[in-house]
Amino acid sequence: MGTAESTEGSPDGIPAGAASGTGPAPKPGRPPAAVVASLMLGMALAALEGTIVSTAVPQIVGDIGGFAVFSWLFSGYLLAVTVTLPVYGKLSDTFGRKPVLLFGIGLFVIGSLLCALAWNMAALIAFRIVQGLGGGALQGTVQTLAADLYPLKDRPRIQARMSTVWATSAVAGPALGGLLASYAHWRWIFLINLPLGALALWMISRHLKEPVRSPARRGPVDWAGALSIFACGGLLLFALVQGGVAWPWLSAPSLGLLGASAVLAAVVVRVERRAEEPILPGWVWRQRTIAAVNLAMGALGLLMVAPMVFMPTYAQSVLGLGPVGAGLVMSVMTLSWPITAALSQHVYRRIGFRRTAAVGMGLAAVILYSFTLLPYPARPWQPALIMLLLGGALGLFQLPLIVGVQSTVGWAERGTATASVLFSRQVGQSIGAALLAAVANATIAARLIDAPVSGLPTALDDVTKALDQPGLLSQAAADYLREAVAAAVDHIFLGATGAAVASLLVLLLMAPRRFPVLPEHVEEQQP
What span, in angstroms and rounded, lies between the C-alpha atoms of 112 and 187? Predict the structure, then answer.
């Protein structure tokens, strides 16, 4: 990859109407509405799948059993999406976005059909992993196509639409899943993907046009690298998901899995250094801009665990809200996020990508810390306001970094660069779930040991159950337990604040003041 030089005239060297692209690139300009609709539909398939299953778990478990392992309905899907992101990113650079996207949607639809036919929990978890293998192609490739099809000045518009899809799915997914599970059957939450996926396949096949890389320009596919990355990432995420839950962190299974992950990581480095066209090329980490953004986005994934995973628990166990109310407290974040994402272009075109993202993350750190200052017991509107402000701050942080990275590489490298950013965020989220859960468990366990009242549960797994059934506890025990949960969530948000500060420091100390945005370059392609 040649060295890109910033152009003069704006904080990040962004000339009016500039778009990145060296080598083969699509013509800039506004794509047909049908193409945009097909991309949004493809993104909706992946976005809905992350939320629609949650409210149907009681019906699923009641029908096919498997309560002890149902959490793998989510963990298995997340694992498959995460470890395949870099693989699909490289394949889209090699063969083009369209075939990878069509393959991903097709695999996702097949996985959905298999999920609907599942006969027990083990089969359903396995088929959810198949879904995730397709979902990895959806997430990364749609984001890359958004950069391919729009010039730099218009990219915030399409990226904001994608953010709106995620926001809508976060609110509508649980409601739709509950309705289908209650009034139809839980299998319909998977069957509904079939017509949507078929429509997305037809629209993309018919309307999406992109340059085709000639076979002469394609290098060999790094299948050894893909397999080693998949094995290493899968083993590491499995260790993080199961550690502290299925077995203690310092037990033989945890230490063995983490040690095996380290060995496989060394294998990945060795294989990728020898590969002619590596899945994870070294330039992703040697290029200062991309490396800094990857680290900052990893910290974002870590801190997002606090509002997305622990806020509903706080709302129900401490504030006494029902599932719907708890969902609303959390979901207000998804209302402000796409709004500030859409407006961020007016900021970064004036002060640059790095400064805009730094402002967003600086605000996020202050907002996260403010949660620890809430009184006990808080009023529901107080954490809801914090979530609303947090969404606005993070919208100002994430989108400029994604657009900035996509604008510093050419068309033939954009899939790999985009996938590396999304992969880093997903890995950060997995690490954050393990670390922050350990913080929460340690806090509650310490409070239970030193409890001045009797009648408290002795096992951490029984804490939420005891609060859901107030008759099991005395009033003093219930109040003490709620305060313990509130203290645990305070510590979690304090940890999230630390992650936000780390992300901010990475941006200020590692990221260049001006991103090396490539000037607009259009090359006619021969099919």
Answer: 9
**Coil, helix or strand at residue 418:** helix
Question: Which tokens sit at 377?
Answer: 């017991």
* pLDDT of 307: 86
- The CATH H-level (homologous superfamily) assignment of domain 283-516 is MFS general substrate transporter like domains (1.20.1250.20)
Phi/psi of residue 247, each to 5°? -155, 160
Calpha distance 425→301 (Å, rounded): 5
pTM of whole model > 0.85?
A: no
Distance, CA of 255 to CA of 473 (rounded, Å): 37
pLDDT score at 112 = 93
pLDDT score recorded for residue 68:
62
What does the DSSP 8-state code read for residue 140? H
**Same CATH fold assignment for domains 33-211 and 283-516:** yes
CA distances for 251 relative to 71, 130, 161, 239, angstroms: 21, 30, 45, 11
Q: What is the 3-state secondary structure (H, E, C) of 47-97?
A: HHHCCCCHHHHHHHHHHHCCHHHCCHHHHHHHHHHHHHHHHHHHHHHHHCH
Retrieve residue 12's tokens. Answer: 């990040």
- What Å distances lie between residue 213 and 91, 147, 205, 415, 522, CA to CA? 12, 17, 17, 14, 15
Residues in CB range of 482: below 8 A, 6 or more apart = 317, 318, 377, 467
Q: Which residue has the tokens 């999304």?
A: 422
Element (H, E) at 309: none
Domain boundaries, the chain: 33-211, 222-276, 283-516
Return left, alpha or beta for 362; rule: phi > 0 is left, psi -120 to 50 is alpha, else beta: alpha
Q: Distance between CA atoms of 105 and 107, rounded to whole angstroms?
A: 5
pLDDT number for residue 449: 77
CA angle (234, 237, 238) in 5-degree steps: 80
Rg (CA), the chain: 23
Q: What is the mean pLDDT of each run of 10 residues along the chain (527 residues)?
A: 40 45 48 78 80 74 74 79 84 85 94 92 90 88 81 72 73 73 84 90 85 59 80 81 73 88 89 80 84 93 85 81 74 82 85 93 96 89 92 91 87 83 85 80 79 67 63 73 86 94 95 82 33
Beta-bridge partners for 247: 243
Q: Which fold has domain 33-211?
A: Growth Hormone; Chain: A; (1.20.1250)
Cα–Cα dist 59/178, whole Å: 9
In Å, what is the CA distance from 174 to each residue of 51, 104, 235, 326?
A: 6, 24, 30, 12
Separation CA 145–CA 164 (nearest Å): 17
- Measured between alpha carbons, how far is 393 from 384 in angstroms, rounded to an integer? 14
With b for 16 or more beta-carbon neighbours within 10 A and e for fewer, the 497-525 pattern comes to bbbbbbbbebbeeebbebbbbbbbeeeeb
